[in-house]
Amino acid sequence: MDLKLHQCFIAVDDHDKALHFYCDVLGLEVRNDVGFEGMRWVTVASPLQPDVEIVLEPPAASPDFSPADRQAMAELLAKGVLRGVIFTTTDCDALYAKVEEAGGEVLQSPTDQPYGVRDCAFRDPAGNVLRFLERPRG
Fold first, then answer.
1. CA–CA distance, 88 with 127 (Å, rounded to integer)
2. pLDDT per position as a tens digit, 66-99
3. For FRET with 67, which of 55, 98, 100, 101 sits at 20 to 30 Å CA-CA?
4. Helical (H) or strand (E) element with 33
């Protein structure tokens, strides 16, 4: 079977703040920006991976969520406990400096991990945890 990841989802509470972070700071590109029934979905992607996209969606975007579910999702997002994504980079320290200079909320400065990567972590403007890892050269 031939499987590839095409899209993953990150909940955001402010698309404009998210776009500034993901595009202006991280360098991703907007692929799609769609409004539907009072909600907005924005798709961003790395120019280096044209076939993998991140959908920035409102928390609890499912029409099947009850008002209580929507409230719970908004509260979880505000706490920063919803899962984010892990990016790879060829220079963890340079990326860290760029995101920190842009005001990103630092969770972990660049660290050599015992499992062989160097990584750092930030929160995006909505509170999602994003990790950036550099694989060893060679």
1. 20
2. 889 888 888 888 887 887 899 999 999 999 999 9
3. 55
4. strand 29-36
